[in-house]
Specification:
- This protein has a single domain (about 5-165), classed as Rossmann fold, CATH 3.40.50.
- Helices cover about 55% and strands about 10% of the residues.
- It is built from 8 helices and 5 strands; from the N terminus they run E-H-E-H-H-H-E-H-E-H-H-E-H.
- A 5-stranded parallel β-sheet has the order 2-3-1-4-5, sandwiched between helices.
- Helix 1 (about 15-25) packs across helix 8 (about 155-165) and helix 3 packs across helix 4.
- Bound molecules: shikimate-3-phosphate (S3P).
- Pathway: Metabolic intermediate biosynthesis; chorismate biosynthesis; chorismate from D-erythrose 4-phosphate and phosphoenolpyruvate: step 5/7.
- Pfam families: SKI.
- Belongs to the shikimate kinase family.
Length: about 170
């Protein structure tokens, strides 16, 4: 059996890294995460890059990270929640098996609302989540070949649903 490259997209906190690692185990392949690649290459945290260099600079780094990872990696690849904002990055995903892990706004607030370490959600989590989802949902749907809803599901259940779907 050839090893599929599965790309995971979806909002922050949806469980891309947990599900991605479980999925990689089940497929007998490796797991990679573009946020981790950026931190390693840059030698600074995502929050530090956002604060000191700004979001546009982060998006440029992210585009390069996605491009490099797609060229180098043949396992499961998780992208940062905002990677799909960039049209070139969305173009890179054409022809890939892309699983969109979705969740509704209330689930997002429950899972991440009190986590001030996430730079995009520091002020009013519910309002910011609503705006974020409205701005991004159609972009996740545009790149996805499969959508897996995570609301009320454990990471194991989500992993199984993703395996059944790809
Ligand atoms: C972001 C999501 C984060 C990280 C950065 C920006 C976003 O990744 O790339 O904080 O714009 O949604 P995770 O989705 O892995 O948390």
């Amino acid at each position: 059996m050839s090893r599929p490259l599965v790309v995971l997209v979806g909002p922050m906190g949806v469980g891309k890294s947990t599900v991605g690692q479980l999925l990689a185990e089940r497929l007998g392949t490796g797991y990679r995460d573009t946020d981790e690649d950026i931190v390693r290459v840059r030698g600074r945290s995502i929050a530090e890059i956002f604060v000191d260099e700004g979001e546009p600079a982060f998006r440029v780094l992210e585009k390069t990270a996605v491009h490099t990872a797609l060229a180098e990696h043949d396992g499961v690849l998780a992208l940062g929640g905002g990677a799909i904002l960039d049209a070139d990055t969305r173009g890179l995903l054409a022809g890939q098996r892309v699983v969109y892990l979705s969740m509704d706004v209330e689930e997002a607030v429950r899972r991440t609302g009190l986590n001030a370490a996430r730079p995009l959600l520091a002020v009013n989590p519910r309002k910011q989540w609503r705006e974020l989802m409205e701005a991004r949902r159609h972009l996740y749907e545009e790149v996805a070949t499969v959508v897996v809803a995570t609301d009320g599901r454990t990471p194991e259940e989500v992993t199984q649903a993703a395996l059944d779907a790809v």
